[in-house]
Design brief:
The chain is α+β, with helices and mostly antiparallel strands. It has helices at residues 7-10, 31-35, 38-50, 66-73, 88-100, 119-122, and strands spanning 12-13, 20-21, 77-82, 105-111. A hairpin with a 6-residue loop joins strand 1 and strand 2.
């Protein structure tokens, strides 16, 4: 994407109207180095001009620098937290890292949540 492809060459239409995706492909690029390239900045500008909303997925904040770098270039960040797996200290460290990088957390999504109330009882409530 950075220098080799045009946006229209990598965007795939889905069966859902108005939803397109760019698959991740192979991780063949050193992201911290690529993040400083004019090609990536151009890519972000082109996406922003052609789409109402763009969501970028990144590796875990606490393990890779990619998310911190990316957060500084985005309008906002949605932090994904895995219920029963992510520890409070890890989540707070991720929040601090994003804030330090200049990113703004707009929301949090919790996945893999399991209610302590059995489903057959929850349906009756």
């Amino acid at each position: 994407i950075i220098n080799k492809w045009k946006l229209e060459d990598v965007v795939y239409r889905t069966r859902l109207p108005n939803l397109t995706v760019i698959p991740g492909g192979k991780a063949a690029v050193d992201f911290p180095e690529a993040f400083q390239s004019p090609g990536l900045a151009r890519f972000f500008r082109e996406v922003k001009s052609q789409y109402d909303l763009a969501l970028y997925d990144s590796p875990p904040v606490n393990r890779y620098i990619d998310a911190s770098l990316l957060s500084s270039a985005m309008d906002g960040v949605v932090l994904v937290v895995r219920s029963g797996h992510s520890r409070r200290q890890e989540v707070m460290a991720a929040k601090n890292e994003i804030s330090t990088a200049g990113g703004q957390i707009r929301g949090v999504v919790m996945n893999d949540f399991r209610s302590p109330i059995p489903l057959f009882l929850a349906r009756r409530l």
